Amino acid sequence: MVSDDTRDSSPAPMKRRQWLLGSAAALGSTLSPACSKPPKSPQSLVCTTTPNTTAANWGRSFAAEFRADAHCHSFNALDLPIDGFLRSLAHGEGVPGFADRTVRRATTPLHAKLVEAACAAESGTSQPVATALISAVSHVLKTKGVELGADGVARLSRVAASSRRSVLAELAKSFPEVSLFMPALVDYAFWEQRGRRRPVYPTATTLPDQVAIHGALYAEANRGQLDAQTGRANAFSVHGYVPFNPLRQIADLAEGQPAEAQAIGIVKQAVGVTAPGKGFAGVKLYPASGFLPLGNARLDEFGGRLGTALDDALLTLYGLCESEDIPIMAHAAESNGFGPDYAWRGAPWAWREVLSRFPKLRLNLGHYGHMRGLDRTCVLSCLAWAEMIAAELMVPDYPNVYADLSYSVLIEATSTTKDPTGLEARQTEYVTKLKDIFARHPDAKSRLLHGTDWWMTERDTTVSAVGGSSNFFTQTQQVLAPLLGSEFAGFGGSNALRFIGVLDAAGQPAVDTGSRKRLLEYYKALGCPKNSLPTWLQATPEELQSWDA
Predict the structure, then answer these.
(1) Predicted pLDDT at 142
(2) What does the alpha-carbon distance between residue 338 and residue 315 come to, in Å, rounded to a whole number?
(3) Does residue 312 or residue 339 have the better pLDDT?
(4) How far apart are CA 161 and CA 75, in angstroms?
(5) I need a surface site. Which of 20, 91, 369, 387 has the fewest CB within 10 A?
(6) Over the chain, what is the mean pLDDT?
């Protein structure tokens, strides 16, 4: 339950967007720099990816070596409502409403400074965020119960203040073994305003512009035009997740937006349902911002009408995604709740009703039910989520349900690391629990995905304990390979290709899936020669023959 002032009390649909936005819209124009507009599309149509491997010579060696990052991020401060996110995070950690004024005195200046710095970075200049401001933000958050130290704020600020191109290049450089990156954008619009008595700063870049900008960067990466900036010798591909926010869809409908401008229309354009697409492979959902995957009409705080509208928007999305083979990645950790009782809303039990209606839905439950591994504050709930995902969702009735292990305790400590904070003990306990889950639910081992959650992991000092981001996969392999056995190769990469519909359950080209067809159309529209497709897409001879049709 939340306070009465957050209920849907709008007397008419035309006022709904005004209610959703509050007074935040008045602030938006002050933080919409010119550099947030989409760049002109690159003119080069030369693909420099590795030579294509056809189905005829698709072998175990490639499948074993292929690496995918099914959960990461490449946005910067222009794409994030930093002020609202931090204030909502504080609220979710139990900070009372009357303390919001104190929190915003720190978070609002940080938001403005990061947007200014990111804008400068997009223009090719550097503008570091003042150490004093970072320390002030960390201090205020800590006094209000949010543990985000100055070092973590500084590392996050460094990435957030970089240009998007630099962020994407750093992602690719940090994980040289990864051939396919799937970075997620987020859309928290309106949710961060709920419960706030003072308006929040929205994102500096509109969602359509974010899709266009990141789509242009994906095109550069998929043509090989970022290889020099990353210093990598091997090629890589980028296909991210476009966010879907049910509150945005409600507002768009109430405002009478044309179909293509609505949230669901943006999804269709990004993934290529209505056009060749902008390089996005799937959709990102963030239930912890305040909504259930389904069943919102039963929540008192939405006052009935809004809950029903949320469910209608989500049902529209699920119907589209199941029929068109569009994968969904959802935040499924009991963390980052935008209100005191919001973090649980991405729980696996909340997805059972969705899957009972849409059993073929392609779904990745991010973080496999946890973010901090065996943090003592969530040991029971986190493990219960992992157990439920394995027992009730990763079952034959739902053949396309997966879970990624991003931002896991597995990356926090090694067997040789000194263990002053108990990380090694937590890792040992976590592995023991996983072993028990896999023993009782062996099918779950073939439904796990490798993910990093970079750059959000930059806030965590324990990442440096394993040698930084570049050691993530090595550390995970050290712990998981003995546990997963022959299934580890799938965890490393090929499971991600099954999840997005590129491969079928037998590891062969899934020639009938909509997602695979859209990816081929994307590369065709990109101008890539048919003999220069990404190896992981492994076009069949029939597909190659029809390339020039």
Answers:
(1) 66
(2) 23
(3) 312
(4) 10
(5) 387
(6) 80
Q: Which of 195, 107, 90, 92 is nearest to 143 (CA)?
A: 90
Task: Give yes or no for a contact between 140 and 29, defined as CB atoms under 8 angstroms apart.
Answer: no
CA–CA dist 545, 549 (Å, integer): 8
Find the helix packing angle between 131-143 and 82-92, rounded to 10°.
30
Q: Are 76 and 167 in contact (CB under 8 A)?
A: yes
pLDDT value for 55: 35
- The backbone region for 285, taken as left when phi is positive above 0, alpha when psi lies in -120 to 50, beta otherwise, is beta
Q: Degrees (nearest 5) of the Cα angle 319, 321, 323?
A: 65
Q: Please name the residue that has the structure tokens 């493990």.
A: 383
Q: State the amino acid at position 98 in one-letter form.
A: F
Side chain identity, residue 173: K
Q: How far is 529 from 52, CA to CA, in rounded Å?
A: 10
Task: Using CB atoms within 10 Å of the CB of residue 439, give its burial: 0 to 12 exposed, 13 to 18 middle, 19+ buried.
Answer: exposed
Half-sphere exposure of 347 (CA within 13 A, CB side): 15
pTM assigned to the model: 0.87
Six-digit token string for 125: 């200049």
Sequence letter at residue 108: T
Please, which pLDDT band fits residue 235 given cuts at 50, 70 and 90?
confident
CA–CA separation, 497 and 441 (whole Å): 22
Provide CB contacts within 8 A for 223, sequence distance 6+.
42, 44, 45, 46, 47, 48, 49, 526, 527, 528
Read off the pLDDT of residues 217-228 as tens digits, 9 standing for 90 and up.
Answer: 999 999 988 888
> How many CA within 13 A on the CB side of residue 132?
0
Q: How far apart are CA 334 and CA 481, in angstroms?
A: 26
By DSSP bridging, strand 363-366 and strand 448-449 are unpaired
pLDDT at 63 over 60: no
- pLDDT value for 47: 36
Supply 331's token pair: 């935040």
Q: Which residues contact 326 (CB under 8 A, 6 or more apart)?
A: 267, 271, 273, 282, 283, 320, 362, 514, 515
Over 50: is that where the pLDDT of 519 sits?
A: yes
Structure tokens at 34: 């010119």
In 3-state terms, what secondary structure has residue 408?
Answer: coil
Q: How many CB atoms lie within 10 A of CB 4?
A: 9
